[in-house]
Amino acid sequence: MSTPLLEVQDLFCERDERVLFEGLNFSLEAGEIIQVEGPNGSGKTTLLRILSGLSQAFEGDILWQGEPIDEVRDDFLSDLLYFGHLPGVKAILTPEENLRWYCALHPHTRTEGITEALANVGLYGYEDVPCHSLSAGQNRRVSLARLYLSDAPLWVLDEPFTAIDKRGVARKEALIAEHAANGGSVILTTHHELAIRDNLRKVTLGGQASPGERMEVV
Q: Which pTM does this prediction carry?
């Protein structure tokens, strides 16, 4: 049996004296997509931040290719693309400059498709406009354009379809499906009903496991 790409073992997280999840167990293989579901406040974003190494407020074990994530942190981060609520762009730079800067810092990226990537997120004609002159939604799209440039083995995406029209949503779904078909793996949250069916599993947050019970992805 091959070693899972990512494995979560007995994950526990508490916030403001309220348990968000406990006894959470799942593994992610290459080519799989996991959608995290649950009502607002159930811990979806918290879980994604934990899985991305941005939060240490948890108990349990997270393994990357069979090794504790803290012991292979540099390798893990080089294999990760994280898309969160904040755009993560430099306001003084243009969309094109932001993407070139991102590609220079991260492996598994390519710079030859930057113009096309920006067009795919609806920013054709804005390539050379400083990001401080763009709207909040446009800055989020600059960040979203990274998906078109990244071959990182793991994508962790928090609400990637927000502020995107139907055509844009279809393009992003196709991109996610293509990434998985090429052997990449994806963990995402979304309120959107995904059309993706192949290799898709779901985990629902919002309830607590009974003592001794193990919450599993299905």
A: 0.92
